[in-house]
Structures are given as C-alpha cells and as structure tokens.
Request: fold
Amino acid sequence: MRELALVFLKLGTIAVGGPAAHIAMMRHEFVDRRGWLTGQEFLDLIGATNLIPGPNSTEMAMHLGRLRAGGAGLVAGGIAFILPSAVLVTVLAALYARFGALPAVEVVLATLRPAVVVVIADALVGFARQAVRNVATAATACLALAGSLAGIPELALVGAALLVGAFAIPVDRSRTLDVSLAALGLMCLKIGATLFGSGYVLIAYLQAELSARGWLSDRALLDAVAIGQATPGPVSTAATFVGYLLAGVPGAGVATIAIFLPAFVLVAVTAPLVERWRARPAVRRTLDVVNAAVVGLIAAVLVRLAPAAVDSVTSLLVAAGVGAGLWLFGWGSTWLLAASVAFGILRAMAG
Reply:
C-alpha cells in the first residue's frame, strides 16, 4: 500500500497534458518499469474505462490500484492520484479569487507541450502493437481516427466498436457566492455520473449547469478549465476550482468528492466483471475491437495536439530531445517531462 500510494502521488504531482498523456505515463510506469500487468491487460483496462462515465485516467489509477491491492488499493490509487491536483487547484483558485488573474505559466506550458506529444506518440506505438493485429482491427482503428477527427463523439465511436465486436466480427472572482454545498455537490455528482469522453467534454457539462443556475460567468468557467488542464493530475479538478469560487474551501472539497465519487463506484462494480469475462471468446473479441478503436482515438488526440505543441524551433528541439531520451537512451517519461518543466521554468525566469 505504501508503494502504491507513493507512486500515484508521484504521478498525480507530475502527470500533465491530459488523459492521453496520463495513461501513457501509467503504461510506462506499470507495464514497462514495474511489470504489474501485461500490455494487453493494460489495454483491456483502457477499453473498460471508455465504456463507463467518468475521468478515464483517474479510473485507470483505480483499476491499477485494485489490481495491486484489492478494494483498498482502488481507493488508495484514486485518492493519491487526485489529491495533489485538488490541493494545487484549490491554491490557484484562492490566488485567482484574490488577484483576479492566473499565475503566468504560458512559457512553461509551451515548453512542456511538445514533450507531452512525444510521450503520447510513444504510448500509441505500444498500444498499437497490442491492439492492431489484423485487417479488421486496423480498419477499426482507422475508422475511429477518422470519426474522431470528423467530430463524432468518443462515446458513439466506442459504442459502435462495442456493438461491432459483440455482434458482427467473429474476432465575481474576489468573493464566493451564496451557493449551498448540497446544491453544488448534487450538480458535480450528476456530472461525474454522466461524463463520457475526454476532459474537454467537461466544459460543455459545466457550462450548461452553471449557466442555467447563473452561478458563474463563461470567462471564469474557461479559466477553471484552463487551470484543470494546466495543472498535473485529472482535468476534472476544474470542478475543484469552480467549487472554490462558489463556496470557498468547503466548496472545493465538496465539488472534488462529488465529481470523482461515481468513478470509484463504477470501477469497483465493473473491474471484477472485466477480469471474470476477459477469457471468454465473445468478450475477448469485443474487447479486441474496442481496444482497436481506442488506438484510433489516441491517434486522433495526437493529430490534434501536435500542430499546436510543436510550433517553433524551441518546441521542435524539446520534442527531439524527449524522443531521443525515450527511444535511444531508454529514459523514463516521468523524468523527461520533469526535465521539460524545469527547462520551461528556466526559460520563464530568463525571459
């Protein structure tokens, strides 16, 4: 349990770049480095998280914790991954509420983005080796990539893959508002129980809920999502930021617990089913198709992120350096991302 808690605290502290990058770092940590599970088992868990609502990378932390230490590990892994981000976002929300602006982080983020893209590309290659084994799965991955780039929701693409696999293929910022904690908690609980897709879908969910209630401006909401994306750990801690603006520290705590609670329950319920049914031929075929679709979705994320991330000579050099570290010297993605952050901080200080 100590090892489990420490490794997820580490990932929760340094895992930046959104769910795809988080999952890439987890694969390196638990498949390549620690050997807790095989690449195929890891890929199956990704497929399982795409079939239930909630933040995918956080649910992966819960799955991996359960695999290592049962039900207690599920809880420990999830909390340890969420906690650093929740604390950091609460601190930033307090600064935002007091000074009306976010700390300047653009230089650091600009340095980090190309490193994240390379880490995602590295994970994508590993996933593809496991998931794309024949013409059918290759076609599924390509169709998922094309569909995602065309704007089809991730849930629809994964659901289509599930059906095909199962049936067709034999293989005011300076003060808080007067918002009750109960109402805030119920809103976040509803979002956490119904949120499918990437962390960016959270923007639409929060905008609809907050606008309907008149609780927060769209500008403040976008700032909340930006903080959730810029800080390490789950993007869904944007809800922590919103909770603080609406009801202070208690609001941040309630919002965090409420938005992540459904994921704990859903993973606890579905994880035994994945393990029990994985060996059945029909389920194995279905997971194979879903996994191929996941490869396509990750490739779509990479295609979207790469042009914005590698847009200068400096970012190109960072990407090349991280690629060399990963593929020529075998250095871990964790240390390479940390080095990229350090380089970004030096650039910010020099500028």
